[in-house]
Amino acid sequence: MLNKVIENMDFSTGWWYPVTLGIILILFVIFMPKRLNWREIYLTMGVIAASVWIIDTIVSVWLDVFDIGKKGLRGIPELFLYSVIPPSIAVIYLNYYIEEKKLMYSILFTALSFTAEWLAVAVGLMKLHQWRPIYSIPVYLVVYYFLLPLHLTFLKSLKQTT
Questions:
Q1: CA dist 40 → 6, 45, 77, 161 (Å)
Q2: How far is CA 95 from CA 9, 41, 86, 91, 152, in A?
Q3: In the structure, what pLDDT confidence band is assigned to residue 13 with cuts at 50, 70 and 90?
Q4: Which of 44, 82, 101, 144 could staple 106 via S-S, CB 3.0–4.6 A?
Q5: Secondary structure of 69-117 as H, E, C letters
């Protein structure tokens, strides 16, 4: 049983990149000065991780526009690329988010997310078929400019109703 688990962990080319970035981001989230409370962090981590798993499964598995690591395996790279990195970046974004600087923050975090995706390709972890990292820029802009502020509004409304 344990051998089967280890075989499926997918320590393919570049696996160290999402692990290293994920650990750095988690430590940043833990030690950053917080404007969000732990409940908001916890909920954001869960919502974003679930959303990324669903969307990336559709895009990478069903539509087959890219592969992470070895095709057909889910392991360490996906765990960090889907469950740790995007939720951590989202928490950092929301923690420092200021409505008056929404465009600036959206552009900055889009650039950071684009760079993180580009590095996944550069280290050989992400293998592209019909996808290019540049295609992600409009997606990131929508997430940072519209969806995450909407999520924050929802979180703040929960605080008032409990």
A1: 34, 8, 26, 14
A2: 32, 9, 14, 6, 10
A3: confident
A4: 144
A5: CCCCCCCHHHHHHHHCHHHHHHHHHHHHCCHHHHHHHHHHHHHHHHHHH
Look up the domain containing 87 and give its range: 2-161
Do 140 and 113 touch, CB atoms closer than 8 A?
A: yes
SS3 67: strand
Tokens for 76, please give them: 């360490």
User: What would the mean pLDDT of 108-121 be, rounded to a whole number?
Assistant: 97
How many structural domains are present in the chain? 1
The single-letter code of the amino acid at 149 is P
Cβ burial, residue 157 (10 Å; 0-12/13-18/19+): exposed
**Using the 8-state DSSP alphabet, how is residue 127 labeled?**
E
